[in-house]
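cron nightly-structures :: item 1 of 1
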Amino acid sequence: MNSRLIAALFLLAVCAAVEPTPASAATSEARVRRIILSSRHLGAHGLGYNSRSLSQLSRRLTPADIPALISLLADGDLTVGVQFALASQCEATILPVRAAAIQHQMNFLDASDTLSLISDFAGCTPEAQKQALEMRADLEKLRQEEQVAAEREAKRKTDDEARIQRNGLKMADPTQAAQLTRAEREEVFHRSLKAMGLSEDGPMTPEQKQLVDRLYRSMVLGEVKTPPN
């Protein structure tokens, strides 16, 4: 067997390992799920997770299981268990948890709880514990920035809606309507369609198409002076 063929076979093996098939990914998730559920212990509030769970998970899972753990975040019943499972992998988990939070695969608060578990887990190195605390602070800053941006966007939408509504009222008065720009009239037109449950790009009956065309010519172009029936 020549060296090129050996190199090609090696590359194929690496690709297969890096990109698991859907079937193997599902098998991995099922195995990880069983491990998480079997790590629960009876406590004051029934079956749950504790420091003993962390120790067991650290022995039964490896960093290679982190992608499967991230996928299981979508299962709300496993949220706490996945946090403990991720935390059991210490330093290897920190960056994937950050990425999952930023991509909204994981709630910021859940990510913070996971990093807090790492910082308190005796099975993690002091350096990993320190990194987890630093990343927790970083995620909190990102969470606050995202919240501010979301509030700003919500206010913008509210202000836009109020402005479009005021312009819609002006459309009833020819004098005030003439003062609106075409872009403002189009905003009122699109708001009217949305209120009727219609969209220019959506499916419509011939009668609805006629109505939309008449509305457009009336509201945007000012060609039709009588309101549509």
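cron nightly-structures :: done
Strands lie at 41-43, 46-48.
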